[in-house]
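From: lab user (bench 3)
To: helpdesk
Subject: output format question, protein + zinc ion

Hello, I'm new to running complex predictions and I'm not sure whether the block I got back is the full result or only part of it. Here's what I submitted:
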Amino acid sequence: MKAFADLLERLAFTPGRNAKLALLERFFREVPDPDRGYALAVLTGGLETGQAKPALLRALVAERVDAELFAMSYDFVGDLAETIALIWPARGPARDVPLAEVVEGLARAGKAEVPGLMARWLDALGPSERLALIKLVTGGLRVGISARLALTGLARIGTVPVEEIGELWAGFTPPYRPLFGWLDGGPRPEVTARAPFRPVMLSTPLTEPDLAGLDPAEFAAEWKWDGIRVQAVAEGGTARLYTRTGEDISAAFPEITAGLRFEGALDGELLVRRGEEVAPFADLQKRLGRKAPGKAMLASHPAALRLYDILIWQGEDLRPLPWSDRRQRLEVAVATLDPARFDASPRLPFSDWEELAALRADPPAAVIEGVMLKRLDSAYVAGRPRGPWFKWKREPMVVDAVILYAQRGHGKRSGFYSDFTFGLWDGDRLVPVGKAYSGFTDEELGKLDRFVRANTIDRFGPVRSLKPALVVEVAFEGLNRSTRHKSGVAMRFPRISRIRWDKPADEADKLTALTDILDEAGA
Amino acid sequence: MPADATRLLTLRPEGLYCPEGDFFIDPVRPVARALITHGHSDHARAGHGAVLASAQTLDIMAIRYGEGFAGSRQAAEGPLTLGGVEVRFHPAGHVLGSCQVEVRAGGVKAVVSGDYSRVPNPACAPFEPVRCDLFVTEATFALPVFHHPPPGDEIARLLASVAAFPERAHLIGAYALGKAQRVIMLLRAAGHDAPIYIHGALERLCDYHLAQGVPLGDLRPATMDKAEARALRGAVVIAPPSAFASPWVQRFADPVIAFASGWMQIRARARQRGVELPLVISDHVDWPDLTRTLRELNPGEFWITHGRDDALMRWAELEQRRARPLHLLGYEDEAE
Ligand SMILES: [Zn+2]
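Helpdesk reply: Thanks, we reran it on our side. This is the complete output you should expect:
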């Protein structure tokens, strides 16, 4: 538990991707089985949690600590699990409880035994391990890394590419002993699980100039839908829905899982669809937030699968076939499924790049992010090979915004103010609308840093409030309505596309520049 | 207890005052006569008429404020008589030169502890428990969530990080008096013999520690240019917290930012500071040591100068101990 708690703590405070990978690699190298396997399950969201509710822990701590002192402490710390972890009275010398003892103990325990088990472990552990334990059992663990990153870190301990691990990993259950045995140099294990996940093929981005070197006759085009990429597998009576990193989300989308009446593996985009109308991404996001959606949610936000590709059918592996053959097989397959839930993403007819560019510039729905180009002869291969598949996104939208706050960056940007909050005019006030920390060169970074230091009007911790004097052009991929933001809108993937040293702040855009886009889209 | 121990000390706008001896202890404004417990800037201020403090605290004040920091100064050695009271200084275990001030008159005794710690610190003599009728305590970390881990464990975490990221310099935020030298000594005790780089603002106080016989090993200035700084892979660099907001940091390539403070126990605090590696290293008593000290000294009454007096008052109520919060303003957690 100690090594695991240490890892969680470092991951929580480490901003850099490479640093996170180094921490993960070190952990998987140094920690023995089965603890590292259970840790992998936790990091990838594959472990059952929620055996103890926060109320139970509060009751346990109330037997040990004065209520008033607890209330003052909670008020100061601000996080219930952390307060309990820190305030729990130490009992004698600490013992390190293996993660396996916790996971296996809870799996065996009846409900009535949980409080006693928890108290015993909390007594034995130190504060940071107690925090990990509490977060783990209450299901409140936010690791702050994706399953993909965890697997990438894991791949570094051996010589097996992460795509191959991804394929096998979902076929085993924690603590994944055969998988670790393989990475340590043992034989490749046989997958015994039903309906396993297969690694997904991804595209690379395309820009206008790249097109000159490509022959339109060699490519097929389809819309790029703004949902989430999924894989639907139904084999031997087992049906599962996976994200593109292999996370099992079957339970969150029961209407899809129930409709997987076939024998094979399909690739597509998960969307919220009402009749023919595909809903904005925000609607899907509501569904993603629910592990087990209620009836009302299922009725108001019905999910649908728009299929792109076919990997396995009736036991036959179609992945080596060219895309054009797979497309034919896909169309035959889709015809057997419920049309209310499943359809094939339409193929876009075009004869030259100008024609496709015109389609891309004016898509028929707001939830289309651009177009996909796929070589007609491309096999379905794991990972992100450059060449067979391209995504050609719509031109980003841009607004001119005023920088309001700046925060110091991390890693290579340590000491530089490089994370910016920007705002738009709402009457005579500037309302924050988003944050960006990319899109500028090293030279601009230095210039921005000097600007921040020279225009600071207030400081709170690492954040500086700035004189509204600098305009930046912010590019973004989409907009959602948001109740969490004061402005009522949330940008998707905002980044600074240009620094407008020349432009006075009062000429920046108004908030209505964004709300008009939303109104137009009917979102 | 004799009810009149509390008459030994009273509260004035300038700070804690002893009427019979006509002096203040750690006043926050200039006064005619001040007794200073230790050199942290919230306790030791410039501009008093006469200052009585340990010889080391006087030296530290001179380093920080210049030789003319007070009209006159006197090093506290042995018992002294000031007006009608007897005064004695006892080690507080907080930083180099830190002392508690004992005030005795008419058969009753008060002890003003300043800031103190019960964890061994090779830079200073350990806290000396002095039985008294009135004990004046700090309450910086007076919440039961504060259990400072053994400092050696925190240094082990730092060294594990240096091993895990051998290409990155580790920049540690630590206050100039006490914390910086503590971190250096802990590193040395853990077998870290490599040169340690220190920010210019730490130089004079590190030199003073050396002069006082506190070994710090091979220290080098962290005032190199960008090219040299980028070459500092895996080195430990120590700087005062203020340096992290200045462009000084920019010379290092992809550093790990650490901070050594008791506050680092609280994640929100660590996040607020933008710290990648929080190190819980404190010069103050944590909750168990604070409550243990109060039980051990068992004074007839205790007063709380600054910090979380609400929680400590609640504890006193539960333990049926007589206590009073002073709500002294001007004592920051600056030095923690
Ligand atoms: Zn102090």
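A quick orientation on your result: The two ends of chain A are 46 Å apart (CA to CA). Let us know if anything else is unclear.
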